[in-house]
Write a structure and sequence with these properties.
Strand content: 15-25%
Shape: globular
Bound molecules: adenosine-5'-triphosphate
Radius of gyration: 18 Å
Largest sheet: 6 strands, mixed
Structural class: alpha/beta
Number of helices: 9
Length: 247
């Protein structure tokens, strides 16, 4: 479904992503892991058009989308959440989701216009799916950290994606919030058939949910394999897991 070939990006001569490769099949859950600064977020930025690559290609569903703008990437079915949560703080949970759906349809949200009454059914469905029912009237700024991150995933669903990219979805969450978020990711994969790529530092979560794992070190793909193979990969252990089998 997605092929990343030799993708590269430098910032002021520093190679943040260095000929990275990634292959993602339809319906897979792929974890991208690597130490701080390995280039995971930059890789996601390159795939989603937030940053333009210096070299390499991004092929999605057989089409070359290298360097496409974020809205074009989104229109093709790739949605994402960010490491730092991106919400409309003064809007309610319901309104935030509505905005994301209206944005997909190229309409703008206005509290006093008929648009606010639109897409209610789809908003309700996303609310329910994300487990945010009962919190629809809460202003985003007042949500717990976990709910804010889940709302961001719900907003990504507003783009009606086939492919979801999540940047550290459970970071900073309390254990119960993290478990809820993991359940949500599994549900999105199983029930909606979404293909999901995420990066995460919590190895328990990574090994518990991923079908396959891509390991990045200093901008480069050092391994891409199933969980068991990654766990046993000596190069991964030395480069990332500190030489011992922490995984
Ligand atoms: N816009 C930018 N300008 C300059 N340097 C950047 C920029 N974006 C990323 N970098 C640098 O590129 C490297 C890779 O950063 P990136 O955020 O992609 O790593 P990461 O693997 O996501 O790290 P973390 O796990 O800490 O989030 C870092 O050294 C970072 O400082």
């Amino acid at each position: 479904m997605l092929i990343v070939e030799e993708l590269s990006k430098s910032f002021d001569g520093f190679r943040a992503v260095n000929k990275a490769n990634l292959e993602v099949g339809q319906g897979e859950i792929i974890a991208v892991i690597g130490p701080n600064g390995a280039g995971k977020t930059t890789l996601f930025n390159l795939i989603t058009g937030v940053v333009k690559p210096d070299g390499g290609r991004v092929i999605f569903k057989g089409e070359d989308i290298t360097g496409a703008l974020p809205h074009e990437v989104c229109r093709r079915g790739i949605s994402r959440s960010f490491q730092v949560v991106n919400l409309f703080q003064k809007l309610t949970v319901f309104e935030n989701i509505q905005v994301s759906i209206l944005a997909r349809e190229k309409r703008t949200w206005n509290l006093f216009a008929s648009s606010s009454k639109l897409v209610r059914q789809e908003t309700e469905e996303i609310l329910k799916r994300a487990g945010l029912k009962g919190k629809e009237g809460v202003v985003a700024a007042l949500l717990s950290h976990g709910d804010r991150k889940v709302l961001e995933i719900a907003m990504a669903l507003g783009g009606n994606p086939h492919f979801l990219i999540l940047d550290e979805p459970t970071a900073g969450m309390a254990q119960d919030e993290g478990e809820r978020c993991i359940d949500l990711i599994r549900t999105l994969s199983r029930e909606m058939g979404l293909t999901i790529v995420f990066c995460e530092h919590d190895m328990e979560m990574v090994f518990g949910i991923a079908d396959r794992i891509m390991v990045m070190v200093r901008g480069t793909t050092v391994a891409q394999d199933c969980c068991d193979a990654i766990r046993c990969n000596r190069m991964v252990q030395e480069a990332y897991l500190g030489g011992s089998n922490h995984a």
